[in-house]
Specification:
The chain is mainly α. It is 79% helix and 0% strand.
């Protein structure tokens, strides 16, 4: 991949993963009662579900490229529209602070399963990969190495960011968090996603 393309992909993925969603809330909630270290099992479950979605999307996208360049181009423009939707949704979200209510400690296997199920039940995860990956592929170059780079990058951000949410969850359980802080994070992420949509649209044009 060209460096500029990789940077744009990494920045877009970073912002999408950072934006608070069901997986982030689950990681934070589990950490409030299980601790940061044990909740790494839940983070592993989330990352595993995303890896599954990534493989499914990569396989389908590769088949689409082979079948029709026109369909592939259509998917790319759908991806631009989806980025705009994510950005506007984040900016105008009415989400307040992350509400954390500590529960009973869970086993490592249970934490992993919880993380996996929460992310696997989120259709936006699959939609993200299916809509966004095509934006950064160079169809004139080998597809597999590009997919591998994007897959490993996504896995890294999953582990890093959701691990940060476990730390946040443990802190919230002790000190709480202002709703305005989460709204500010959403607005910042939304603006970054809209900028990514603009950059991606220039590439797709």
């Amino acid at each position: 991949m060209e460096l500029s393309t990789f940077i744009l992909f990494a920045a877009t993925t970073f912002v999408v993963v950072l934006t608070p969603g069901p997986a982030a809330i689950a990681a934070a909630a589990q950490a409030s009662s299980n601790g940061v270290t044990r909740t790494q099992a839940a983070v592993g479950g989330i990352a595993s579900a995303n890896a599954m979605f990534f493989v499914l999307s990569a396989t389908g996208i590769s088949a689409t490229i082979i079948a029709s360049e026109t369909i592939f181009t259509t998917i790319k423009w759908f991806g631009v529209a989806y980025l705009i939707y994510l950005g506007l949704s984040a900016i105008f979200s009415r989400s307040g602070g992350l509400q954390i209510e500590p529960g009973e400690p869970r086993s490592v296997a249970s934490l992993f399963g919880k993380g996996f199920l929460v992310e696997a039940a989120n259709p936006k995860a699959l939609l993200y990969f299916a809509a966004i990956l095509p934006q950064f592929l160079d169809t004139a170059a080998p597809i597999a190495p590009q997919m591998a780079i994007m897959g490993l990058t996504t896995l890294f951000f999953d582990w890093a960011i959701y691990s940060c949410y476990t730390v946040l969850g443990a802190q919230i359980a002790r000190h709480g968090v202002r709703p305005s802080s989460i709204r500010a994070l959403n607005s910042l992420a939304g603006g970054a996603l809209l900028y990514s949509a603009f950059r991606v649209a220039k590439v797709a044009a």
